[in-house]
Amino acid sequence: MMMRYSKEELMPVVAKLAARYTGNESTSVTYEKARQLMGAVIYCIEVYEKAGAGDEGLVAAHSSLSADTVYRQGYEILLNKVAEIRQNYNLMMKEFRHYGNRCCYDTFQKGLPGFFLYYDPRFDPVNHILTLDYPVLVPLESRCGADLMEVYVNCAYMEQKFLGKLPEEYIRYVLNAYSGDYEELIMNLASIVLRNIIGCRIAGKPIDLIGYSQEEMTRLENFISGNTREDLEEHLKRYVDELMDFAYEGNKELGNYLKEDMRNYSFELKHARNYHCLQTVLAVEHS
Fold first, then answer.
1. Every domain of the chain and the residues it spans
2. CA 68, CA 173: separation in Å to the nearest integer?
3. Which long-range contacts (CB under 8 A, 24 or more apart) does 268-273 make?
4. pLDDT tens digits, residue range 162-195?
């Protein structure tokens, strides 16, 4: 999004913020701190602009507002966003399950509360504080601050909703079939379980704790071989949609999130078929 304010228009806003940072004793700060405060002003202005995207009235009003006004309104929107992130996090944690995976537990149970304790929306909103070791299915590289945390918590919440409808015994079986060391691995739990479910769907196999029969494995191998990588990806996405309709009340947001993994899954299925290692990708024992 294009910033409409010049550096000259932003400097008075930064100076006010610097004065607040020093307790009104001075507007003089180090070069590094000045850069941080400029980043804080720009971040809040961008928060305001993103909130108004698609709202013609707000966009028109924005064109006549000073940088200081837009910064202050963006800051208030940011505070509300942090409050919404906290609310979603608290809802997620009511029935949170990590299934024995240390990274999942450490990230959400132990680490993430630190964001709400130490995040500084006024002076350093770009910094989201945490390393966020647990991998989600969407790229986060272009995001920072509360914008990143909003997406990250929402992804985790959707994963918990997905896994929460499945028996814990089944989930732990699949994770253990994927790797006997799954408790210590940094991996996306929902992806591994979903891949198992879709593999069963392709093979015509019940979703249970019993491994693939030779007939089921042959059916799966033929399906993979009989489709291009691109066609395979489309089939996988359609199976996600079927699963959402069948067990998740047609949850499109959850379905679209889970489909983020289907491109990688299609590549891995093709590779695993060629190198005879489908059991690992499917996270299931071969009976």
1. 78-280
2. 56
3. 269/224, 269/232, 270/224, 270/229, 270/232, 273/221, 273/224, 273/225
4. 999 999 999 999 999 999 999 999 999 999 999 9
Residue 124 in 3-state DSSP? Answer: strand
- Alpha-carbon distance 75 to 97, whole Å? 34
Closest to 119 in 3D by CA, of 150, 163, 94, 154: 150
Separation of alpha carbons 132 and 127, rounded Å: 12
Specify whether the CB–CB gap between 171 and 193 falls below 8 A: yes
**Count of Cβ atoms closer than 10 Å to residue 256 Cβ:** 15
What predicted TM-score, i.e. pTM, was given to this entire model?
0.93
User: What's the chain's length in residues?
Assistant: 287
CB atoms within 10 A of CB 41: 24
Pick from 256, 283, 112, 113: which is nearest to 189 by CA? 283
- Residue 34: count of CB within 10 angstroms of its CB: 18
